[in-house]
Amino acid sequence: MTGCSVAKGLLEGHPHLTVTVLEARGLTRGASSRNGGHIVSPSFWEFPSLVEHFGPKAAVEIAEFTVRNCEKTFDAVEAISDPELNDQSEIRKVQKLIVLTTERHDYVRLVESEGAVKEFGLHNVAGVAVSKAGAVWPYRLWTGIWAYLQKKYPERLTIETYTPVTSVATTKSDQGPARYTIKTLLGDVGAAKVVYCTNAYSAHLLPPLRGKIFPIRGNMSAQDAGPDFPNLGASRSWSVISKRRKDLASGTQNYGLYYITRNPHTGHMFVGGEDDILDNLLSSDDSRMNPMSAKKVFEVLPKFYQKTASKTVPLKVWSGIMGFSKDGVPVLGPLPEMVTGRSEEKIGLPPVSMGMEQVTATVVVWL
Ligand SMILES: Cc1cc2nc3c(=O)[nH]c(=O)nc-3n(C[C@H](O)[C@H](O)[C@H](O)COP(=O)(O)OP(=O)(O)OC[C@H]3O[C@@H](n4cnc5c(N)ncnc54)[C@H](O)[C@@H]3O)c2cc1C
User: Which residue's alpha carbon is at the smallest distance from atom 45 of ligand 1?
Assistant: First the structure.
């Protein structure tokens, strides 16, 4: 989604540029198609830690940015004005229920009347807050936008899939006119500028980022919640928030967040969230899953929703790799020489929408 947003921003805002996308796998096979399709600001959950690390003023600015980001996603799709993209991607605005499982959170204490909790069909919860969000079928959204860009800019956009980049170097004066030589397994590409949209894999091309941006494997699941759970997928989504837990003895980490959307047509519930040992979570392999999380994710709905049978029926579980930064905020902007090993002239970034939120650590860099 970052690559798509950047390509779109460049093509629309800079008519003299041509854009070549070099993708190691198939188009949209990374986290962008494997996620929960929840278009949300994570601020409610992350705000306390933002205040702790960056102070209240910056925390508010970041929170407002994440809300604008959600709005921009809808604006971008609306501006494309393609009914097929809307239909296929099932993009929709929803009311998000933020379900709090314990009364005391680090900074938030919220207790709702029993009536309100009942109104939403919940049990075993301390309270509920209501907020705005969106939901989407992410693979269809991003491939739909790529298709739109290819159609609109056939002369200026080239997409090379299954073309892993192995290095980027400054071109030597006798090697050609392009400022950079990008080496790929299929040959070299010359470019005047390079933007890395490589998420969890950024440190592979930029080794000084190792340990600063690192992969975290997340699980997603599709579940059948049974016939008694009303299908409000067209108008509602859910986040279940509990205290973050770390058990040093077992090495288990619980992120304290489950996020849930529902497909309005099929009724499938999409539930994601992590509760697993660090060795499983710190992985860049999305052909495997986090085994503990893969079981626990089926206990979420029955625990908090009255009308869910004691067990939901698992339909599918899959994983995706997220890039996390050490301080939890996105990495964005010109790369310093200490990261690239090259001295670079800095130029401004064009306006770029990052798409959905929870873009935890993507490097978008202008060299
Ligand atoms: C299970 C799960 C659930 C999630 N749920 C949500 C959610 O509900 N809502 C939300 O907002 N966010 C969610 N996220 C987070 C969101 O999916 C990511 O933040 C977002 O997809 C990051 O997009 P990206 O384009 O930066 O990275 P990616 O989609 O990972 O794309 C990076 C691309 O770079 C390519 N690449 C890497 N190295 C190279 C190389 N050397 N050469 C060529 N290509 C390379 C990769 O192949 C990949 O296609 C979830 C993530 C996961 C894993």
Answer: 24
Q: How far is the CA of 197 from the centre of ligand 1 (A)?
A: 9
Q: Rounded to 5, what percent of the chain is helix, strand, coil? A: 30, 30, 40
Measured from the CA of 360, which atom of ligand 1 is nearest?
19
pLDDT in tens, 286-338: 999 999 999 999 999 988 887 766 668 999 999 999 999 988 888 888 888 88
**Cβ neighbours of residue 242 closer than 8 Å, sequence gap 6 or more:** 100, 101, 102, 254, 256, 257
- List, for residues 151-168, the tens digit of each pLDDT value: 999 999 999 999 999 999
- Atom in ligand 1 nearest the alpha carbon of residue 32: 21
- Is any ligand 1 atom within 6 A of the Cβ of residue 362? yes
- Computed from CA positions of residues 167, 169, 172, 174, in that sequence, does the dihedral angle turn out positive or negative? positive
Q: Are 240 and 224 in contact (CB under 8 A)?
A: no
Q: Show Cβ contacts of residue 201 under 8 Å, excluding neighbours closer than 6 positions.
A: 24, 215, 284, 321, 323
pLDDT single digits (tens) 141-155: 999 999 999 999 999
Q: Determine if ligand 1 sits within 6 Å of the CB of residue 199.
A: yes
Alpha carbon of 324 to ligand 1 centroid (Å): 11
Is residue 222 within 8 A of residue 269, CB to CB? The reply is: yes
